[in-house]
Write a structure and sequence with these properties.
- By secondary structure, this protein is mainly alpha-helical.
- The chain has 2 domains: 9-185, Up-down Bundle (Growth Hormone, Chain: A), CATH 1.20.1250.20; 194-400, Growth Hormone, Chain: A (Up-down Bundle).
- It is 78% helix and 1% strand.
- The chain has helices at 3-25, 31-37, 42-45, 47-70, 73-89, 96-124, 130-159, 162-182, 197-208, 211-241, 246-270, 276-299, 305-331, 338-361, 370-389, and strands at 396-398, 404-406.
- It has a two-stranded antiparallel sheet.
- The longest helix is centred in the middle third of the chain and has 31 residues, at 211-241.
- The model is unreliable at 396-408 (pLDDT under 50).
- Keywords: Cell membrane, Membrane, Transmembrane, Transmembrane helix, Transport.
- GO terms for molecular function: xenobiotic transmembrane transporter activity.
- This is MFS transporter, DHA1 family, bicyclomycin/chloramphenicol resistance protein.
- Belongs to the major facilitator superfamily. Bcr/CmlA family.
Length: 408
């Protein structure tokens, strides 16, 4: 594949994958303005974020079968159109309940972009190329939390909170055009694929029976839940316990995002010498050690601002190595059911990530423990998944379509 075309495909797939994160983060600075404008409370406005997470979790499983039956582009078109309609619908809301419902619909639409982008990596690139491509997608996705809240803040200050949804709608329109013009159909529709509940469940069951899938998908989901714990608890930790200003917190968040992004890009380089399997193993061992030390420091009252930054950076660095390789390994055995596999992997991540967010909320706001506790549990459970699951992974895997993948 020509370098220019390869870059263009990765850029479009990365933008599609980043639509969901942008949708989550960009309107956060407007919570106060939304509450005042719709005559409600910030806590009620926050339910629009919860409804978005619920929509993402449900939508992951919806689009997997659709992508396998109709090909990649038709469900992607449908999801983008649904997202665009919901985004511009948010312009006209007069009640917070309308916003909550429309955010749910918007999330259902954004799931098409997330699931399709992962499935199309498996379609368009070889097994050897996939980890590097996933790392490039992670680069685009990881930049989103740095750009979205800042851009949203400026936009809200200049034009008002409703224009965030104008921006998101226009962003989706540009992706729809790019998909139609530049993105090839990477999977031939399968008319024999049934959308009745029983065949869909059988398809998911076929994916779940593959040891390489459930081993690495669970590893990815558990370590990803540590990232959710960091995002959920870092505002309290840095602004209430360490008394940082909002501006300083933003710079810290951006700096740690750079660590995460940097690790994922270094991963692309070291894949020349090490396999994805070995990188996941080494990085996961390191992450367990760092998270346990993080918890020990917190438990014994030894944490300070600097050591907290160091431990979070080390955890995110390991995550930058684990996630792209685990994603590539979990998807590698599939071609025919890549859509279902992508959907299940995304559902695992969102479900465990939402659980991690709830867990950190159970702790006292003055405690340093939430983040290291969840990170340690997530890393250690992921290690258990690797140790147990690797016992069932065969040396040579025959994928669902009848091809062969030599994984190790």
């Amino acid at each position: 594949m020509a370098a220019k075309r390869r870059f263009g495909l990765i850029l479009i797939l990365g933008c599609l994958a980043a639509l969901g994160p942008f949708s989550i983060d960009m309107y956060l600075p407007g919570f106060v303005d939304i509450a005042e404008n719709l005559r409600t409370t910030e806590a009620t406005v926050a339910l629009s974020l919860s409804s978005f997470f619920i929509g993402i979790s449900a939508g992951q499983l919806l689009y997997g079968p659709l992508l396998d039956k109709f090909g990649r582009k038709k469900p992607l078109y449908a999801g983008l159109v649904l997202y665009i309609v919901a985004s511009f619908g948010c312009l006209a809301v007069t009640d917070v309940n309308q916003l909550i419902v429309l955010r749910f619909v918007q999330a259902i639409g954004s799931c098409a972009t997330a699931v399709a982008s992962i499935a199309m990596v498996r379609d368009l690139f070889t097994v050897e190329e996939s980890p590097k491509v996933f790392a490039s997608l992670m680069l685009v996705i990881a930049v989103s939390p740095m750009l979205a809240p800042t851009a949203g803040g400026y936009l809200i200050e200049a034009l008002g909170w409703r224009y965030v949804f104008v921006f998101l709608g226009l962003m989706a329109v540009s992706m729809l055009v790019a998909t139609a013009i530049k993105l090839p159909e990477s999977y031939k529709p399968d008319p024999s694929y049934s959308l009745r509940p029983k065949p869909i469940l059988i398809s998911f069951a076929q994916v779940l029976r593959e040891p390489q899938f459930y081993t690495y998908a669970l590893i990815s989901a558990f370590v990803f839940s540590g990232l959710f714990a960091y995002v959920s608890s870092s505002p309290v930790l840095f602004m209430k316990i360490y008394h940082l200003s909002k501006t300083d917190y933003g710079w810290i968040f951006a700096g740690l995002s750079v660590v995460f992004i940097g690790a994922s890009q270094v991963n692309s380089v070291i894949l020349r010498w090490f396999s994805s399997k070995h990188i996941v193993s080494f990085a996961l061992v390191a992450q367990c050690i760092f998270s346990i030390l993080f918890l020990a420091f917190a438990w014994n009252g030894m944490l300070n601002f600097v050591s907290t930054i160091v431990f979070i950076a080390l955890f995110l660095c390991c995550l930058g190595f684990i996630n792209p390789n685990a994603a590539a390994l979990s998807m590698a055995p599939f071609s025919k059911h890549a859509g279902s596999a992508s959907a299940l992997m995304g559902a695992f991540q969102m479900a465990l990530g939402a659980g991690a967010s709830v867990l950190v909320s159970l702790f006292s706001e003055q405690s340093q423990l939430p983040m290291p506790v969840v990170m340690t549990v997530a890393s250690c459970v992921a290690m258990c998944c690797l140790l147990v699951g690797s016992q069932f992974i065969r040396e040579e895997i025959v994928d669902v379509s009848g091809g062969t993948f030599v994984g190790h």
